[in-house]
Design goal:
Shape: elongated
Largest sheet: 5 strands, mixed
Number of helices: 10
Strand order of the largest sheet: 4-3-5-12-6
CATH architecture of the largest domain: 3-Layer(aba) Sandwich
Distance between the termini: 46 Å
CATH superfamily of the largest domain: Periplasmic binding protein-like II
Helix content: 40-55%
Length: about 300
């Protein structure tokens, strides 16, 4: 039989490590600071190693404590996710998922039926927000964001490939070579996406284009709108590969061959702090990773 520490001690350890102190952990777990300290000491005694350094003002994790935290968190997450997946979740408020409009329309909405079929007991409320700071009044359970992944939340999972492709109207001629003529495409009209204007500047520097050649012909606030303008023959735009793919598959836009603008921006699933995670959110996270990891 495995000589594992009691789960209550491990939960207390995780809270103290995440919150940076015994007093904060006691408030979250509704224990006294003395009870938290006692449980941590009991855990350290069973393991035979110190997990925290006791400082004049507060505590800090030892190297072994730092190494132990991720495994403990994964264990609780896996247990919560498995319990929800096998036995269902308690009926209550819907799972609130926030995502950028373009990702919601082009990727999430067409695929969401797979999650609902696998978990029919989970009601989902999908909220679209162009910027992550724009939140609905209720708490967001899982956030899908477009960015560089450098956020301070407890857990971040990359979902899609980074970089941008250059999309053009169907029927566009790219010439005989393996790489499209970016200057000729930019002459069709550069459609800029608000918040991502730097992508065109980066492409201009990479391709040696003058500022006038990549001047904004049209600007929109979402990739979905940019794709619709491209499909209507209004110009060309730089789009995340995962967002361009459904429109390419439908034959509504084409990707310029051999042109990939490299940068760090991609779509990520962001979960709140450990204490605020719902089992439904863990199931949705696992589904998102499996569903979107194969994005081009």
């Amino acid at each position: 039989m495995r000589n594992l520490p009691p789960p209550a001690w491990l939960r207390t350890f995780e809270a103290a490590a995440r919150l940076g102190g015994f007093t904060a952990a006691a408030e979250e777990l509704r224990l006294t600071p003395a009870a938290v300290s006692q449980q941590i000491r009991a855990l350290e005694a069973q393991l035979g190693y110190p997990l925290f350094r006791r400082l004049p003002r507060g505590v800090s994790l030892t190297e072994l404590g730092q190494a132990y935290v991720p495994a403990v968190r994964r264990a609780f997450d896996d247990l919560s996710s498995a319990t929800a997946g096998l036995f269902g979740v308690a009926q209550g408020r819907p799972l609130v998922v926030r995502a950028p409009p373009s990702f919601s329309f082009l990727r999430l909405a067409p695929a969401l039926g797979g999650f609902r079929a696998a978990h029919p007991g989970i009601a989902v409320r999908l909220c679209s927000a162009t910027w992550a700071e724009t939140a609905p009044e209720e708490r967001v359970d899982i956030d899908i964001r477009y960015g560089d992944g450098r956020w301070t939340e407890a857990e971040i999972h990359r979902l899609t490939a980074s970089g941008s492709v250059l999309v053009a109207p169907p029927g566009t001629s790219f010439g005989p070579g393996p790489r499209a003529d970016v200057r000729a495409l930019a002459a069709l009209g550069a459609i800029h996406i608000i918040g991502c204007e730097s992508f065109w500047q980066l492409l201009g520097r990479t391709e040696g284009l003058a500022e006038a050649e990549i001047a904004c012909a049209l600007s929109v606030d979402s990739s979905a709108a940019a794709l619709e303008l491209v499909a209507a023959g209004q110009g060309v735009s730089l789009i995340a590969p995962d967002l361009a793919e459904p429109m390419v598959r439908a034959g509504r836009v084409v990707i310029a061959p051999g042109v990939l603008l490299e940068h760090e921006q991609a779509h990520y699933a962001v979960l709140p702090a450990q204490s605020d995670r719902r089992p439904e959110a863990l199931l949705f996270r696992d589904w998102c990773v499996a569903e979107f990891a194969a994005s081009p």
